[in-house]
Write a structure and sequence with these properties.
This is Putative HTH-type transcriptional regulator. Strand 2 and strand 3 form a beta hairpin. The protein is elongated and about 60 Å long. It has seven helices and three strands, in the order αααβααββαα. The chain is mainly alpha-helical and about 170 residues long. A three-stranded antiparallel β-sheet has the order 1-3-2.
Length: about 170
């Protein structure tokens, strides 16, 4: 018999059958959230690879682009926005600067810090890549959820994400 790819629901059914009597509702919810994240993330990674970007580089460019003109941030702000360490960001910034996607200059307010700025080449690249990612995500969402369901999902996710703010 050929191996069949298990869906998340198959996996959850197997978990329920093997875990006697306990309420697994929380595990089911978390596994579904993780699986949904993985589906969207895997799809986005395909686009990142097409643009020769890794996740850290993509997130950094997005962070700069979403900042608005002049598309500039301190490394500390980029770290906070992307939940990365300064050591991890340094490698990303070096790579992006070498590819002429960002530039760095001394911060006028703080001589110890350098501002990171999106170059025209970086802006063009991330606008194209992000446009593709968002279009693909929009299709995935609209194929599976109604507008009301998406609104409800956003409301529920907002509530969950506020847990970290308490």
């Amino acid at each position: 018999m050929a191996d069949r790819i298990l869906t998340i629901e198959d996996s959850l059914e197997q978990m329920r059958n093997c875990w006697n009597g306990d309420d697994l509702a929380v595990a089911e919810t978390i596994k579904r959230l993780f699986r949904a994240r993985e589906l969207f993330f895997s799809d986005a990674k395909i686009v990142m690879e097409q643009f020769n970007l890794n996740v850290g580089e993509f997130d950094t460019l997005v962070s700069l682009r979403l900042q608005g003109p002049p598309f500039e941030q301190t490394p500390s702000n980029i770290c906070q926005a992307n939940l990365v360490t300064s050591g991890g960001l340094t490698k990303v910034l070096n790579s992006l600067e070498k590819a002429d996607l960002i530039s760095r200059r001394q911060c006028a307010d703080d001589q110890r810090s350098r501002l990171v700025k999106l170059t025209d080449k970086g802006k063009k690249l991330i606008e194209e890549a992000l446009g593709i990612v968002l279009a693909r995500h929009e299709k995935q969402l609209s194929d599976s959820l109604t507008r009301d369901e998406r609104d409800m999902l956003n409301t529920l996710l907002r509530k969950i994400n506020q847990l970290g703010m308490r």
